[in-house]
Input
Amino acid sequence: MKRKAIRKRLDLLLVERGIAKSLKEALAMVLAGEVQVDGKRTDKVGTSIAADARLLISRSTPEDVFAWTSALLQGGSQTVSYSTAPRVSTPLM
Output
């Protein structure tokens, strides 16, 4: 007989693993699209996932945000080339 895998809410799992300091921070990370579960981006905090799921956290570095903001301020109507690819990725088990 197979045992059911233990499932937990994504926001609670982020806090339990120490990735987020609070449920509020976990919510912000998920809504910002910074969290991938087993290679798929998820934007729902209450998603029930396997407790042993592989999480990948991707965040833009402050340098990316600064460069993008600077370019907008210098010439707001000009086209700004900005890579949406995350520069910092941390796989977490």
The helical segments are 10-16, 23-31, 62-74. The first helix runs from residue 10 to 16. The domain at 7-76+83-92 is CATH 3.10.290.10 (Structural Genomics Hypothetical 15.5 Kd Protein In mrcA-pckA Intergenic Region; Chain A). The chain has three helices and six strands.
